[in-house]
Amino acid sequence: MANDKVIVGMSGGVDSSVAALLLTQQGYAVEGLFMKNWEEDDGTEYCTALQDLEDATRICDQLGIPLHTANFAAEYWDNVFEAFLAEYSIGRTPNPDVLCNREIKFKQFADYATALGANFIATGHYARTRRLGGRLLLLKGLDRGKDQSYFLQAVRLDQLENVLFPIGELQKTRVREIARAHGFANHRKKDSTGICFIGERRFRDFLERYIQTNPGPIVDQEGCQVGEHAGLPYYTLGQRQGLGIGGLKGRPEAPWYVVDKRVDLNHLVVTQQASDLDNDRLATGEFNWLVDAVDLPMEVAAKVRYRQADQAATVRKRADGQLLVEFATPQRAITPGQYVCLYDGEVCLGGGTIESYGSCAC
Length: 362
Hints:
The structure is a single chain. With 362 residues, the chain is an alpha/beta fold. It contains 6 helices and 17 strands. It has helices spanning 14-25, 49-63, 73-89, 96-115, 172-181, 203-207, and strands spanning 5-9, 29-36, 67-71, 120-122, 127-132, 135-140, 163-164, 216-219, 225-229, 257-262, 267-271, 278-289, 298-303, 311-317, 323-332, 339-344, 347-358. The strands form 4 sheets. Strands 12-15-14-13-16-17 form a 6-stranded antiparallel beta barrel. A 5-stranded parallel beta sheet has the order 3-2-1-4-7, with helices on both faces. It has a 4-stranded mixed beta sheet with strand order 9-8-11-10, with no helix packed on it. Strand 8 (216-219) and strand 9 (225-229) form a beta hairpin. Helix 1 packs parallel to helix 2 (49-63) and helix 3 (73-89) runs antiparallel to helix 4 (96-115). The protein is globular. The protein starts with a strand and ends with a strand. The relative contact order is 0.12.
């Protein structure tokens, strides 16, 4: 182990800082790598990359380990951001963080670390790996409130072979305690949220810089106009706030919800029946299995969004090759472009992009 070189992805946050600390304590030859994935060329104050780099540098200095820096902004644009824009342009709602892990953190970063002579890479994800009968398994992090296996579902199994998750066995409170005990200035640093390249700015302000949007009618499910939308990409299924509908003659004083996007007509479809958002099945196309010898159909637990509790479901293969996930209870606002992640207990089975959804007509 003393000769094994590990390069830790240093974000400037407390999780990657403690991950680096633990690995040094375990005797690894540890080095850090700060990745720049977005160019701050818009003159705004929203990107925190400079502060994050300062924090990462400070921690590495305290640990006495070198810190490398790499700019993957071009790769991020080509492999993550363009896909993000393409999905929004056709009315879907993507999750770039899942794609970023596959394309950047466990591909570009891993290749860069290998070129630096690393035997392993490590990150501050709340996840675990384990070998069972020679097979590598991806497991949930022990802190169920912070488990990040959902964001790793699209990473290929071979990409996880030489990855370490030092804090996967810890609770977040314990991670902060360790950081505080070792004098890390970032021990109380707020966790990053949302999409890194948007930061704290309004999503609409950001998106309008890159996507041409067309205002159009908001209609109910019968096609009657009840308002005007600013552009379909600005809305997501299940959205209740910001629709600007109210005081309609002959309509009850009940909230409206986005239930569909009819891209061909440029219609945003809304409903006042919250139950219209409930569906009990979805289909996913290309699926990234993280286990071998899957025997379908099978009973699984599924999530259609991060932090959702496990939902009982059955997965089977359709005649067209797509996977059909059927839930034991209806799910609220299943959204095309998002990801469904499947589990068997604490084992992450893999995941895929949601292509369509519906309800049983039985």
